Every structure is written in C-alpha cells, then in structure tokens.
Amino acid sequence: MEEGDFSNVKDEMENAKKGDTILHLNYKGLKNLPPCLLSDICYRNLKTIYAKRNLLTCLPENLNRLLSLVELYLPSNNIKAIPEGICDLRKLESLNLCDNELTQLPADIGNLENLQKLQVSVNKLTSLPPSIGNLRRLKTLELMRNNLSVLPVSLSDCENLTTLLLDYNRLTGLPRHFQRLTSLSELSVCGNNLITLPQTFANTEHSSLQCLLVDKNPALHVLPLSLIHIDTGNFQSCRRSDPLGVLPGMVELVVPYKEMLVPIVMPPEIRSVNAPWDSVPSLLELGLRSSGALGKRFLDHKDYYTLLDSLPCTMKSLLLDPTALCQSCHQEVYVTALPVLVLDKSIFYLGFCCSIKCAVNICLMYSAGLGMDIVYPLCMPVI
Fold this sequence. Notes:
Layout: H1 10-17, E1 22-24, H2 36-39, E2 48-50, E3 71-73, E4 94-96, E5 117-119, E6 140-142, E7 163-165, E8 186-188, E9 211-213, E10 223-224, E11 252-257, E12 260-265, E13 272-273, H3 283-297, H4 302-309, H5 313-320, E14 324-325, E15 332-333, E16 336-344, E17 347-353, H6 356-369, E18 373-376
Parallel strand pairs: 1-2, 2-3, 3-4, 4-5, 5-6, 6-7, 7-8, 8-9, 10-17, 13-16
Antiparallel strand pairs: 11-12, 14-15, 16-17, 16-18
Helix pairs in contact: 3-5
InterPro entries: Leu-rich_rpt, Leu-rich_rpt_typical-subtyp, LRR_dom_sf, LRR_domain-containing
Protein name: Leucine-rich repeat-containing protein 28
GO cellular component, one term: cytoplasm
C-alpha cells in the first residue's frame, strides 16, 4: 500500500464521519494515520481508535485535536516516538503502545489525568518520566520486556494502581517507597536481575498485595518475611548464582544451614547489622527512630515538613519511607537492624527486628508456634 493511499479504509472513515465514535483501522498496512482524521472537524467526537499491526512509525503532532478520545489502541507498529501533544488528551483512559520501538515516554505524560490503563510492553524504554506519579487514576501499568534498570520513586504516588507488570527488564531492586501502593494486588517482576526486595511489601494492614511473581531472578536468594503468606510464583527458579559482591557497599551475610551457605544481601539502606548479643543500635539509627517518632506526633504540622526539607535528601527520604518495620512491634527500622532468617518449604525469608526482645518473639512465633526453621540468629538470645 502506498504511503498516501487510504482507499482501503474509506468505509471506516465514512462511518466515523457519520457519527460512529469507534474507528477500526487494525491490519490495514497504514504508514500514517489518514490526514483528514485531524483536519476534518467531523472526527472530533471520536472516542476510540483501533490501529493494531500497521506500519506506523510516528504519530501526528496535532493528535491533541481529538480531545474526545478515551481509548487509543496502537500495538504492533513501528512507532519510535510519541508527540508531546498526546498529553493534552485529558479524557484518555486507555493507551496501548505495546510492541513498538519507543525509547522514552513523553515528559508530561502525567497530564493524562484520567488515564486508567497504560500498556507499553515490548519496547526499548530505559527510564520513565517522573511525572508518571501524577497518574492518580492509573490502575494497570504494563512495562514488560523493556530496558528499565531503575524505577522513579514518583511511581509510588499512583495510589490506585492495582496491577504492575515489570517482567524481563534489568531491575536489580524496587523502591521501598512502593509501600505507599496500598491498592496494588498484583506485581510481576519475573526475569529481572533482582537481588533484594523491599521489606515494606505487604507489611501493613492496609496492603492489598495478593500476588508478587519473582520467577527467574538468579541472584535473589531470600524473600521478605512479610511475604510468607503471599503467592510469589516459582521461587525455585531463582537462587541459581551467588549474588555476593554484585553491588559494592551493600551489607551481606553468609549464613550456614546444614551443608549449604545461604548468602543474604541486605536492602541497600541497611548500613550495619546487629548480632543477637549486640543489642545497641547505631547512633544514626537511634536518631532516625527518635525523629520518626517525633514526626508521627507532628505529621500534620507545617514546621515538621520545614524541618524535613532542611535535612539531606537521603535522610528525609528514610524518615518518610523507612527501610522496614520490626516484624514484632512494627517499630520503624532505618539503617541498623537485627535480621531474622526463616525457612519455610525450602524458601528462605528475611525479616528485621528492632531489638533482641522482638527477635525472641519472632523466633518463638515461627519456630514453636508455626513449626518453621529459624536459620538466623544462629542461637536463640536469652533475655
């Protein structure tokens, strides 16, 4: 089909011109969208465009003229870039750009205030724009098979997100700030390079997480203890290689268990680990716990946020989103913790406690109460 030949979509265009709000252009061999679509006012009431598996390499800059669009379905094309004008489609609820050639999303994609479903799997994305956190109505985000190595913290502001698919990217970890995604019920991160998972997953009564799939992450040896009753897929497909030394500067332990050594990589925020016989946290940890407790009392006071803004960014971030919660008393844990390693059905789970007393409580609950193996602490501390 010639680039400017739209004879095979004549009937579809006529139907849309007469008032049909859905335009069907799937499998038409189109190299461009018909120009009249944007120049003729008759098409301004279009709500849905289906243009799957064509030969599109770009979208028109003035796509924002179709202000009534609710769904834009463009998978399996060769689209390399999205015009910024698409961010003016404030009524858009569903955008599907899977299986294209995208290397980035528009910087202002957060302006799509009604967007509920964003599907951009099978592209070449290396990053996401920070404005993605402004998509407060977003429920489904599909990013499988891209080149993402990190995710923006702002993604944790998508408060209505229920499904997040990140399979087959290059992620080594996930932001601990994801604890804010209390509506998230399904998270899939199979086939990445994960070394650790946030301890804050499913660690509060507000969490909706039911399924966290982690298959085929070779360097992932342990799961957060808070996930012990969550579906984590085929975890046996992980643990195939030794993660020690992968990320310089991270705190690592090697715990003997029977005839094997279990490598445990701490979350990157953890700077030191307390042994069971060493009950005094670091001064930094004590300071952060005191500041965190103070923040709970004055959370709604404007002076508290003024104080936070005066702190270094990393410290402010820790106070707002702690590394973990104590498995026993739910005290915030920041940079120093007492780890507890539990074995259940051949899967190792790692949790943190803020004190020896809490560690004893957790050990008793899982060993005596639930009949699971306590792998670490190697010996039960005595109070």
